[in-house]
């Protein structure tokens, strides 16, 4: 290395120390050299007071993968029933006394919901619901057939692992066979969800009637075997510890090493309103950004990290596009799992394509419409040229 190169490196390193701090500089060095982070690193990233430094590192990784692109999808959510026998303590969606009234959509209602937005060129229908043991196997097949008959060619992302276990119970067949039959009926991918956080302690305390971490992983492995793409999530901001968050990320990463079938990871901000955990404070924007950034840094085998604007708010999502997120989810129609803050009961949660583009452009990113598998559907002119990942050491 020449003297000038050495001097450039020294200057770059001094800058990096200023940005990330001397306490995180070893992690920065490993991120820059593409080295895998450990669970201890993840815990340090969660605890480091310098959120900007964590976000700076996450943004370097994000830009190396996607340049300035920020992906969105035009989609519709259908939550076919809110009747559920799992009674998860963090859930405000299921029908209960003093909470939402029970409903169950028949096929005419599903068709009606789809027709309501038929003029919008939606590429994805996202469908999940509660666990109602009275629904027969045929109901789930009919749901898929109905969506595909109204919207041929649409991608159906449906059924969490918990629903799949119930569907299998109804079908009375091996899970692998059930998944194949659901695929024949129109199922294209699994939305993830259903485990919230891979921690036996949290499982016992908050959702012990649902499947546990090992069972969730088995469903994911079976999905990979039959060729179903899957998405992953982590619900944070309830009773989980920093260590449990870090463990969750590491377990997801190991599962992805094994199966390679996950496309995106979405950290989901917990909304305590209307749940048994109403006393728990809502995660802050600071917490939301940190979870995006740490996920981006730890999950080196996940291509996409999503900031789901409904959970994180559009405002935090704009910032998240500089903290590791490259995806904002979709235009979304009628999301019933959580409501607008301060607007309990309002199920109309929509951003039009125009609003979505504005939100992304205002944040200084390039909006790219994608389908569920991240094929580009249409994009506006790029306003910022995609950046190549250039180690800071040679950026001058
Ligand atoms: S999170 Fe899902 S399984 Fe749990 S109560 Fe709510 S709807 Fe039921």
Descriptors:
TIM Barrel; globular; about 45% helix; disordered C terminus; binds iron/sulfur cluster; about 400 residues
Beta-strand portion reads 5-15%
Model regions low in confidence, pLDDT < 50 over at least 5 residues:
339-347, 380-396
- CATH architecture assignment name of the domain at 65-78 and 185-379: Alpha-Beta Barrel
Helix coverage percent? 40-55%
Based on secondary structure, the structural category is: alpha/beta
Q: Kindly report the oligomeric state of this protein.
A: single chain
Radius of gyration: 21 Å
Bound molecules: iron/sulfur cluster
**What is the number of beta strands?**
11
What is the CATH class designation of the domain at 65-78 and 185-379? Alpha Beta
Can you tell me the CATH superfamily of the domain at 65-78 and 185-379? Aldolase class I
- Written as H for each helix and E for each strand, in order along the chain, the element string is HHHHEEHEHEHHEHHEHEHEHEHEE
**Total number of helices:** 14
Give the end-to-end Cα distance, rounded to a whole number of Å: 17 Å
Cα shape:
globular
CATH level 3 topology of the domain at 65-78 and 185-379? TIM Barrel
Mean pLDDT, to the nearest integer, reads: 91
User: Mind describing the biggest β-sheet?
Assistant: 7 strands, parallel
Strand order of the largest sheet: 2-3-4-5-6-7-8
Describe this structure in words.
By secondary structure, the chain is an alpha/beta fold. The chain has a domain at 65-78 and 185-379: Aldolase class I (TIM Barrel, Alpha-Beta Barrel). It is 43% helix and 13% strand. The protein has helices at residues 3-20, 25-32, 39-47, 51-66, 107-116, 137-150, 161-171, 175-185, 200-206, 213-226, 242-259, 285-298, 309-320, 353-362; strands at 69-73, 75-78, 124-127, 155-158, 187-190, 229-236, 262-269, 304-305, 327-330, 366-370, 376-379. Helix 12 (285-298) links the parallel strand 7 and strand 8. It is globular and about 75 Å long. Bound molecules: iron/sulfur cluster. Iron/sulfur cluster (SF4) binds at residues 84, 86-88, 91, 93-94, 130-131, 162, 207, 210.
């Amino acid at each position: 290395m020449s003297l000038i190169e050495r001097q450039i490196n020294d200057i770059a390193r001094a800058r990096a120390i200023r940005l990330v701090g001397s306490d995180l500089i070893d992690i920065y060095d490993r991120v820059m050299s593409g080295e895998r982070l450990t669970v201890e690193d993840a815990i340090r990233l969660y605890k480091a007071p310098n959120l900007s430094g964590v976000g700076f590192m996450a943004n370097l990784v994000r830009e190396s993968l996607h340049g300035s692109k920020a992906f969105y999808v035009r989609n519709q959510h259908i939550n076919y029933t809110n009747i559920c026998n799992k009674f998860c303590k963090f859930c405000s969606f299921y029908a209960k006394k003093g909470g939402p009234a029970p409903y169950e959509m028949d096929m005419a209602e599903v068709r009606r919901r789809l027709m309501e937005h038929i003029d919008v060129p939606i590429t994805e229908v996202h469908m999940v619901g509660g666990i109602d043991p009275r629904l027969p196997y045929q109901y789930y097949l009919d749901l898929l057939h109905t969506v595909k008959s109204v919207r041929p060619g649409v991608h159906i992302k449906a059924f969490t692992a918990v629903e799949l276990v119930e569907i299998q119970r109804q079908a009375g067949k091996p899970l692998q066979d059930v998944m194949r039959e659901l695929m024949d009926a129109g199922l294209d991918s699994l939305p993830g969800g259903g485990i919230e956080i891979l921690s036996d302690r949290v499982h016992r305390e908050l959702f012990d009637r649902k499947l546990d971490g090992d069972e969730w992983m088995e469903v994911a492995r079976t999905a990979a075997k039959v060729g179903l793409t899957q998405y992953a999530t982590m619900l944070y901001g309830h009773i989980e510890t920093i260590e449990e968050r870090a463990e969750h990320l590491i377990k997801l990463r190991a599962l992805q090493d094994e199966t390679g079938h996950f496309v995106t990871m979405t950290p989901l901000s917990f909304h305590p309103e209307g749940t048994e955990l109403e006393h728990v404070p809502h995660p802050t924007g600071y917490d939301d950004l940190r979870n995006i950034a740490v996920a981006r840094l730890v999950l080196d085998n996940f291509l996409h990290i999503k900031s789901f604007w409904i959970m994180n708010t559009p405002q935090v999502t704009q910032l998240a596009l500089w903290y590791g997120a490259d995806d904002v989810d979709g235009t979304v129609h009628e999301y019933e799992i959580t409501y607008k803050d301060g607007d309990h009961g309002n199920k109309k949660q929509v951003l039009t394509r125009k609003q979505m583009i504005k939100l992304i452009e205002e944040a200084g990113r390039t909006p790219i419409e994608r389908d569920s598998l991240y094929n580009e559907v249409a994009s506006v002119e790029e306003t910022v040229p995609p950046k190549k990942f250039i180690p800071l050491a040679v950026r001058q």
